[in-house]
Design a protein that fits this description.
Length: 366
Protein backbone atom coordinates (compact mmCIF):
# COMPACT_ATOMS: atom_id res chain seq x y z
CA UNK A 1 0.00 0.00 0.00
CA UNK A 2 1.50 3.28 -1.07
CA UNK A 3 1.31 5.91 1.62
CA UNK A 4 2.05 9.49 2.45
CA UNK A 5 4.72 10.53 4.92
CA UNK A 6 3.65 12.07 8.24
CA UNK A 7 5.98 13.37 10.94
CA UNK A 8 4.89 14.12 14.49
CA UNK A 9 7.96 16.18 15.39
CA UNK A 10 10.34 18.48 13.61
CA UNK A 11 13.67 16.86 12.90
CA UNK A 12 16.98 18.47 12.10
CA UNK A 13 18.90 17.68 8.96
CA UNK A 14 18.52 18.23 5.26
CA UNK A 15 15.50 17.30 3.22
CA UNK A 16 15.62 13.88 1.62
CA UNK A 17 15.81 14.29 -2.13
CA UNK A 18 12.78 12.53 -3.66
CA UNK A 19 14.74 11.94 -6.84
CA UNK A 20 17.14 9.78 -4.84
CA UNK A 21 14.53 7.70 -2.99
CA UNK A 22 12.32 6.80 -5.96
CA UNK A 23 9.38 6.37 -3.58
CA UNK A 24 7.74 8.52 -0.95
CA UNK A 25 7.08 5.78 1.59
CA UNK A 26 10.36 6.62 3.32
CA UNK A 27 10.69 9.28 6.03
CA UNK A 28 11.33 12.81 4.83
CA UNK A 29 12.82 15.25 7.33
CA UNK A 30 12.43 19.00 7.32
CA UNK A 31 14.83 21.75 8.21
CA UNK A 32 14.83 22.98 11.79
CA UNK A 33 12.40 25.79 12.54
CA UNK A 34 14.17 29.03 13.34
CA UNK A 35 13.92 30.53 16.81
CA UNK A 36 11.74 33.62 16.80
CA UNK A 37 14.21 36.07 18.31
CA UNK A 38 11.72 38.92 18.24
CA UNK A 39 9.35 37.27 20.68
CA UNK A 40 11.27 34.52 22.44
CA UNK A 41 12.18 36.64 25.47
CA UNK A 42 9.02 38.70 25.67
CA UNK A 43 5.98 38.21 27.86
CA UNK A 44 3.04 36.73 25.88
CA UNK A 45 0.81 39.58 24.75
CA UNK A 46 -3.00 39.46 24.79
CA UNK A 47 -4.27 37.57 21.76
CA UNK A 48 -7.17 38.83 19.59
CA UNK A 49 -10.27 36.83 20.49
CA UNK A 50 -11.49 36.75 16.90
CA UNK A 51 -8.37 35.11 15.44
CA UNK A 52 -8.62 31.48 14.22
CA UNK A 53 -7.81 28.60 16.56
CA UNK A 54 -5.50 26.78 14.17
CA UNK A 55 -3.82 26.96 10.78
CA UNK A 56 -2.74 24.55 8.06
CA UNK A 57 0.20 26.01 6.15
CA UNK A 58 0.09 24.36 2.74
CA UNK A 59 2.16 24.12 -0.41
CA UNK A 60 1.35 22.03 -3.47
CA UNK A 61 3.46 21.39 -6.56
CA UNK A 62 1.51 20.75 -9.75
CA UNK A 63 1.82 19.63 -13.36
CA UNK A 64 0.93 23.17 -14.46
CA UNK A 65 -1.29 26.17 -13.76
CA UNK A 66 -4.48 25.31 -15.67
CA UNK A 67 -7.71 24.11 -14.08
CA UNK A 68 -7.19 20.58 -15.45
CA UNK A 69 -3.62 20.27 -14.13
CA UNK A 70 -2.92 17.93 -11.22
CA UNK A 71 -1.18 17.96 -7.84
CA UNK A 72 2.08 15.98 -7.76
CA UNK A 73 3.20 16.75 -4.20
CA UNK A 74 1.71 18.37 -1.12
CA UNK A 75 2.91 19.41 2.32
CA UNK A 76 1.06 20.66 5.40
CA UNK A 77 2.42 22.26 8.57
CA UNK A 78 -0.23 22.40 11.27
CA UNK A 79 0.09 25.40 13.58
CA UNK A 80 -1.79 26.29 16.73
CA UNK A 81 -3.64 29.57 17.34
CA UNK A 82 -0.39 31.48 17.97
CA UNK A 83 1.54 29.99 15.08
CA UNK A 84 3.50 27.30 16.93
CA UNK A 85 4.12 24.12 14.93
CA UNK A 86 2.20 21.03 16.01
CA UNK A 87 3.27 18.60 13.27
CA UNK A 88 3.83 18.31 9.56
CA UNK A 89 3.04 15.94 6.69
CA UNK A 90 4.25 15.41 3.13
CA UNK A 91 3.38 13.22 0.17
CA UNK A 92 4.05 12.88 -3.50
CA UNK A 93 1.07 12.09 -5.75
CA UNK A 94 0.88 10.12 -8.98
CA UNK A 95 -0.95 12.48 -11.38
CA UNK A 96 -1.54 9.76 -14.01
CA UNK A 97 -0.18 12.12 -16.64
CA UNK A 98 3.02 13.93 -17.63
CA UNK A 99 4.49 15.65 -14.53
CA UNK A 100 4.95 18.95 -16.34
CA UNK A 101 7.90 21.31 -15.64
CA UNK A 102 10.35 18.82 -14.12
CA UNK A 103 13.09 21.47 -14.31
CA UNK A 104 11.15 23.41 -11.66
CA UNK A 105 9.87 20.80 -9.19
CA UNK A 106 12.30 17.94 -9.95
CA UNK A 107 9.61 15.23 -9.83
CA UNK A 108 9.97 12.95 -12.84
CA UNK A 109 7.56 10.29 -14.08
CA UNK A 110 9.86 7.61 -12.65
CA UNK A 111 9.82 9.25 -9.21
CA UNK A 112 6.03 9.54 -9.24
CA UNK A 113 5.31 6.08 -10.67
CA UNK A 114 5.03 4.45 -7.23
CA UNK A 115 3.51 7.45 -5.48
CA UNK A 116 -0.09 7.16 -4.19
CA UNK A 117 -3.01 8.45 -6.21
CA UNK A 118 -4.72 11.52 -4.79
CA UNK A 119 -7.74 9.39 -3.87
CA UNK A 120 -5.45 7.28 -1.69
CA UNK A 121 -4.18 10.24 0.34
CA UNK A 122 -7.38 12.32 0.28
CA UNK A 123 -8.56 11.22 3.71
CA UNK A 124 -5.20 11.82 5.40
CA UNK A 125 -4.83 15.17 3.63
CA UNK A 126 -8.30 16.16 4.80
CA UNK A 127 -7.41 15.31 8.39
CA UNK A 128 -4.53 17.80 8.16
CA UNK A 129 -6.79 20.55 6.80
CA UNK A 130 -9.94 20.03 8.86
CA UNK A 131 -11.05 22.78 11.28
CA UNK A 132 -8.15 25.04 10.32
CA UNK A 133 -7.58 28.08 8.16
CA UNK A 134 -5.62 27.14 5.04
CA UNK A 135 -2.54 29.37 4.77
CA UNK A 136 -0.59 29.57 1.52
CA UNK A 137 1.43 32.00 -0.58
CA UNK A 138 -1.02 33.04 -3.31
CA UNK A 139 -3.60 30.96 -1.45
CA UNK A 140 -6.26 31.07 -4.14
CA UNK A 141 -4.07 28.89 -6.38
CA UNK A 142 -3.39 26.20 -3.76
CA UNK A 143 -7.04 26.21 -2.70
CA UNK A 144 -8.33 25.82 -6.24
CA UNK A 145 -5.94 22.97 -7.04
CA UNK A 146 -6.89 21.18 -3.82
CA UNK A 147 -10.63 21.73 -4.34
CA UNK A 148 -10.47 20.35 -7.88
CA UNK A 149 -8.59 17.24 -6.75
CA UNK A 150 -11.25 16.55 -4.13
CA UNK A 151 -13.98 17.11 -6.71
CA UNK A 152 -12.36 14.56 -8.99
CA UNK A 153 -12.16 12.15 -6.05
CA UNK A 154 -15.91 12.61 -5.43
CA UNK A 155 -15.29 14.39 -2.15
CA UNK A 156 -15.32 17.88 -0.72
CA UNK A 157 -12.22 19.56 0.69
CA UNK A 158 -12.75 20.31 4.41
CA UNK A 159 -11.58 23.92 4.12
CA UNK A 160 -13.86 26.81 5.02
CA UNK A 161 -11.43 29.73 5.09
CA UNK A 162 -8.06 30.59 3.57
CA UNK A 163 -5.43 33.22 4.29
CA UNK A 164 -2.96 34.45 1.69
CA UNK A 165 0.42 35.47 3.09
CA UNK A 166 0.81 37.95 0.22
CA UNK A 167 -2.34 39.72 1.41
CA UNK A 168 -1.16 39.55 5.04
CA UNK A 169 2.18 41.12 4.10
CA UNK A 170 0.25 43.98 2.49
CA UNK A 171 -1.91 44.41 5.61
CA UNK A 172 1.28 44.63 7.67
CA UNK A 173 2.89 47.01 5.14
CA UNK A 174 6.05 44.91 5.07
CA UNK A 175 8.82 46.60 3.02
CA UNK A 176 9.18 43.81 0.45
CA UNK A 177 10.65 44.35 -3.05
CA UNK A 178 8.06 41.99 -4.56
CA UNK A 179 5.51 39.34 -3.59
CA UNK A 180 7.74 36.29 -4.01
CA UNK A 181 8.03 33.74 -1.20
CA UNK A 182 11.81 34.16 -1.19
CA UNK A 183 11.39 37.89 -0.46
CA UNK A 184 9.03 37.23 2.45
CA UNK A 185 11.43 34.59 3.78
CA UNK A 186 14.42 36.93 3.51
CA UNK A 187 12.55 39.65 5.40
CA UNK A 188 12.22 37.34 8.41
CA UNK A 189 15.66 35.74 8.04
CA UNK A 190 14.30 32.38 6.94
CA UNK A 191 16.71 30.27 4.89
CA UNK A 192 15.18 28.33 2.01
CA UNK A 193 16.92 25.02 1.33
CA UNK A 194 15.07 23.82 -1.77
CA UNK A 195 12.69 26.09 -3.65
CA UNK A 196 9.71 24.36 -5.29
CA UNK A 197 9.95 21.35 -3.00
CA UNK A 198 6.53 21.31 -1.32
CA UNK A 199 7.86 20.35 2.11
CA UNK A 200 10.57 23.00 2.19
CA UNK A 201 8.29 25.68 0.75
CA UNK A 202 5.69 24.87 3.43
CA UNK A 203 8.38 24.99 6.14
CA UNK A 204 9.65 28.35 4.92
CA UNK A 205 6.14 29.75 4.79
CA UNK A 206 5.33 28.45 8.28
CA UNK A 207 8.44 30.17 9.62
CA UNK A 208 7.55 33.44 7.92
CA UNK A 209 3.88 33.22 8.89
CA UNK A 210 4.58 32.88 12.61
CA UNK A 211 6.16 36.35 13.09
CA UNK A 212 3.65 37.80 10.63
CA UNK A 213 0.78 36.45 12.71
CA UNK A 214 2.29 37.79 15.92
CA UNK A 215 2.86 41.20 14.37
CA UNK A 216 -0.76 41.25 13.21
CA UNK A 217 -1.98 40.29 16.68
CA UNK A 218 0.19 42.92 18.37
CA UNK A 219 -1.09 45.61 16.02
CA UNK A 220 -4.72 44.53 16.07
CA UNK A 221 -4.57 43.93 12.31
CA UNK A 222 -7.53 42.34 10.58
CA UNK A 223 -6.50 39.01 9.09
CA UNK A 224 -7.30 38.79 5.35
CA UNK A 225 -9.52 35.70 5.59
CA UNK A 226 -11.50 34.53 2.57
CA UNK A 227 -14.34 32.04 2.48
CA UNK A 228 -13.64 28.78 0.62
CA UNK A 229 -16.75 27.56 -1.13
CA UNK A 230 -17.00 24.00 -2.50
CA UNK A 231 -17.07 23.56 -6.26
CA UNK A 232 -20.78 22.80 -6.48
CA UNK A 233 -21.88 25.04 -9.34
CA UNK A 234 -19.59 23.87 -12.10
CA UNK A 235 -20.72 22.18 -15.32
CA UNK A 236 -21.01 18.41 -15.60
CA UNK A 237 -18.23 16.14 -16.65
CA UNK A 238 -18.96 12.37 -16.83
CA UNK A 239 -17.26 10.36 -14.10
CA UNK A 240 -15.88 7.99 -16.73
CA UNK A 241 -13.69 10.81 -18.04
CA UNK A 242 -12.26 11.65 -14.66
CA UNK A 243 -10.25 8.45 -14.41
CA UNK A 244 -9.89 5.84 -11.69
CA UNK A 245 -11.82 6.87 -8.56
CA UNK A 246 -10.10 4.79 -5.89
CA UNK A 247 -11.84 5.18 -2.56
CA UNK A 248 -14.30 7.64 -4.04
CA UNK A 249 -17.62 6.12 -3.00
CA UNK A 250 -20.37 8.68 -2.37
CA UNK A 251 -20.99 9.64 1.21
CA UNK A 252 -17.47 8.94 2.40
CA UNK A 253 -15.57 11.05 4.88
CA UNK A 254 -16.08 14.77 4.50
CA UNK A 255 -18.88 15.71 2.15
CA UNK A 256 -20.88 14.27 -0.69
CA UNK A 257 -19.83 14.53 -4.31
CA UNK A 258 -21.96 16.40 -6.81
CA UNK A 259 -21.43 15.40 -10.46
CA UNK A 260 -21.35 19.10 -11.42
CA UNK A 261 -18.35 19.96 -9.26
CA UNK A 262 -15.54 19.95 -11.81
CA UNK A 263 -14.98 20.72 -15.45
CA UNK A 264 -12.04 20.95 -17.84
CA UNK A 265 -10.58 24.02 -19.49
CA UNK A 266 -12.50 25.62 -22.38
CA UNK A 267 -12.68 28.93 -24.20
CA UNK A 268 -15.36 31.46 -23.29
CA UNK A 269 -17.53 32.71 -26.20
CA UNK A 270 -17.27 36.32 -27.33
CA UNK A 271 -19.89 38.68 -25.88
CA UNK A 272 -22.43 39.45 -28.65
CA UNK A 273 -23.64 42.76 -27.17
CA UNK A 274 -22.15 46.25 -27.69
CA UNK A 275 -20.69 48.06 -24.69
CA UNK A 276 -23.32 50.50 -23.33
CA UNK A 277 -20.76 52.38 -21.23
CA UNK A 278 -19.87 52.56 -17.56
CA UNK A 279 -21.85 51.16 -14.68
CA UNK A 280 -23.72 53.80 -12.67
CA UNK A 281 -24.20 53.37 -8.94
CA UNK A 282 -27.77 52.47 -8.04
CA UNK A 283 -28.62 51.23 -11.51
CA UNK A 284 -28.50 47.66 -12.85
CA UNK A 285 -25.75 46.24 -14.97
CA UNK A 286 -26.58 46.07 -18.66
CA UNK A 287 -25.67 43.35 -21.12
CA UNK A 288 -22.51 44.21 -23.04
CA UNK A 289 -20.82 46.03 -20.15
CA UNK A 290 -17.10 45.27 -19.83
CA UNK A 291 -16.29 43.83 -16.39
CA UNK A 292 -12.77 43.18 -15.05
CA UNK A 293 -11.72 41.30 -11.90
CA UNK A 294 -8.72 41.86 -9.63
CA UNK A 295 -7.38 40.03 -6.60
CA UNK A 296 -8.58 37.10 -4.52
CA UNK A 297 -12.25 36.10 -4.43
CA UNK A 298 -14.34 33.73 -2.32
CA UNK A 299 -15.96 32.17 -5.36
CA UNK A 300 -13.40 30.88 -7.85
CA UNK A 301 -12.46 33.62 -10.31
CA UNK A 302 -13.31 31.61 -13.42
CA UNK A 303 -16.72 30.75 -12.01
CA UNK A 304 -17.42 34.45 -11.39
CA UNK A 305 -16.30 35.22 -14.92
CA UNK A 306 -18.57 32.50 -16.28
CA UNK A 307 -21.54 33.90 -14.38
CA UNK A 308 -20.80 37.32 -15.83
CA UNK A 309 -20.53 35.93 -19.37
CA UNK A 310 -23.73 33.93 -19.00
CA UNK A 311 -25.52 37.13 -17.92
CA UNK A 312 -24.42 38.80 -21.16
CA UNK A 313 -21.47 40.79 -19.82
CA UNK A 314 -18.09 41.12 -21.52
CA UNK A 315 -15.32 39.71 -19.28
CA UNK A 316 -12.20 41.83 -19.77
CA UNK A 317 -8.74 40.48 -18.94
CA UNK A 318 -7.29 43.98 -18.62
CA UNK A 319 -8.60 47.39 -17.60
CA UNK A 320 -8.94 50.32 -20.00
CA UNK A 321 -10.99 53.50 -20.40
CA UNK A 322 -13.72 51.31 -21.92
CA UNK A 323 -14.09 49.11 -18.83
CA UNK A 324 -17.54 49.48 -17.28
CA UNK A 325 -16.79 48.05 -13.84
CA UNK A 326 -13.93 46.61 -11.76
CA UNK A 327 -14.71 43.89 -9.21
CA UNK A 328 -12.22 43.58 -6.34
CA UNK A 329 -12.34 42.76 -2.63
CA UNK A 330 -9.24 44.88 -2.00
CA UNK A 331 -9.55 48.36 -3.56
CA UNK A 332 -6.33 49.42 -1.83
CA UNK A 333 -4.24 46.53 -3.17
CA UNK A 334 -2.23 48.56 -5.68
CA UNK A 335 -2.60 46.03 -8.51
CA UNK A 336 -2.29 47.37 -12.04
CA UNK A 337 -6.06 47.11 -12.56
CA UNK A 338 -6.83 48.97 -9.33
CA UNK A 339 -4.31 51.70 -10.19
CA UNK A 340 -5.76 52.10 -13.68
CA UNK A 341 -9.30 52.16 -12.28
CA UNK A 342 -8.31 55.15 -10.15
CA UNK A 343 -6.69 56.87 -13.12
CA UNK A 344 -9.67 56.33 -15.42
CA UNK A 345 -12.38 56.81 -12.79
CA UNK A 346 -13.71 53.29 -13.38
CA UNK A 347 -16.46 52.29 -10.90
CA UNK A 348 -15.38 49.65 -8.36
CA UNK A 349 -17.52 47.17 -6.38
CA UNK A 350 -16.67 44.18 -4.21
CA UNK A 351 -17.54 40.55 -4.91
CA UNK A 352 -20.68 40.53 -2.75
CA UNK A 353 -22.09 43.62 -4.45
CA UNK A 354 -21.30 42.16 -7.87
CA UNK A 355 -23.17 39.00 -6.93
CA UNK A 356 -26.23 41.08 -6.15
CA UNK A 357 -25.92 43.00 -9.42
CA UNK A 358 -25.77 39.76 -11.40
CA UNK A 359 -29.26 38.87 -10.21
CA UNK A 360 -30.81 41.64 -12.29
CA UNK A 361 -28.84 42.41 -15.45
CA UNK A 362 -30.77 44.62 -17.86
CA UNK A 363 -31.05 43.46 -21.49
CA UNK A 364 -28.94 45.08 -24.18
CA UNK A 365 -30.38 48.00 -26.11
CA UNK A 366 -32.19 46.96 -29.26
Amino acid sequence: MRRAVFERALSAGPLTDPRATGCQSRPVSSGTMLEDLTTAASVPAPWPAGYPQGYAVVDVETTGLARDDRIISAAVYRLDARGEVEDHWYTTVNPRRDPGPVWIHGLTSDVLADAPLFEEVAEEFAARLADRVLVAHNAVFDWQMIAREYARARREAPVRQRLCTIALAKELALPLPNHKLESLAAHFGVVQQRAHHALDDARVLAEAFRPSLRAAAAGGVRLPLHECRPLTEWADRPAAQIGRQAGGAPGGGYGSYRPSSWRPSRKRPVCPHPNPGRYEDGKPLKQGMRVAFSGDTSVERELLEDRAAEAGLHVATSLSRLTSLLVTNDPDSGTSKVVKARQFGTPVVDEAAFGQLLRDVAPADE
